[in-house]
Amino acid sequence: MKKQVFKKARTYILFVIVIIGLFFYFNSKAKITSLVNKTSIVNRVVNKTVSASGSVKSRNEADMSFSSGGQLRYLYVSEGQKIITGQLLASIDNQSQSQTLQYYKDAWDIAIKEKELFKNNKDQNIDLLHGEKAYNIKLEEYNQQISQAEANYKIYLSALGKTNIYAPFNATVIEITKKIGENAAANETVVKVADLDKLYFEISVDQSDYGNIKTGQETILNFDSYDGLDFNGAVNELPTQANPDSSDFTVKVDINKTPDLNLWIGMTGDAYMITQSSVSEVPSLIYNEIQKDEVGKPFVWVVDNGRIAKQYIDVGIEGDIYTEVKTKVDKQIVVPSSDGEQIKEGYIAKVIN
Fold this sequence. Notes:
By secondary structure, the protein is an alpha+beta fold.
């Protein structure tokens, strides 16, 4: 009998201890305060992009050099100057060559004048040569002299062209690498030119992203020289094979130039090719303001009667910065006030911002 009473008393005491423990546990949890910041759903365009770095290039670029070496004697242009096709840009020392060229030009002119003089005195020359047949033979000799003199002149003119540099197309001088008086070796770049009206942005795209890119795809461009400014563009050209060295793909993006802002060859920056867009503004939150439970279902923290609670939501486009929220949320959405702040369902919400 005593044993049964003792056993019942012990069971009762254990039960009371458990109840008291649970009471203090839940009571203490209910009193835990979490510091949180307020946030809210905002209507904005949500974009998902593929990004890559690159630099500005021109579809018409040329590194101009002399075919033969020599001392740079003349520079007829300066950096930043616009030039037209065929314009003389620079010359190396060619004084002796010019004199020789003039000699061949004079010889050609003299041969032509001698022939004309011979033809103008045809009757007299027929008599002197004792017949028209001899006259015609002599006339043919003049024609051969003229042809030879012309050939000599054009051959040397071609050789003299190696001492000059001419503009290959309408362009702008973007760099001059030599000063007057300096020596320029054969095929050493002296003047760099480019057509600044035909600029594009060249980027290297990783193979994992290449499948998401299409010709004509809208692209946002940010240049290091214009921090915070967006330029618009579009994918113009996609390669059919990867670069053998890096296994990346080289992609060309057209640039919609802004009249008030200059773009130059070699400017660096980033391209953001839009692979998915909401087109118009949609309700959204910053991506890290949305949480996911253990099975990956999205939710937000809200304040319900002063305490923190979960509200599950449906999401749309998950962009680079913002995520579309398809569920209407009437309660105040909150996020931890700092990275180390604990936030759990049932905690008292202390809003500090």
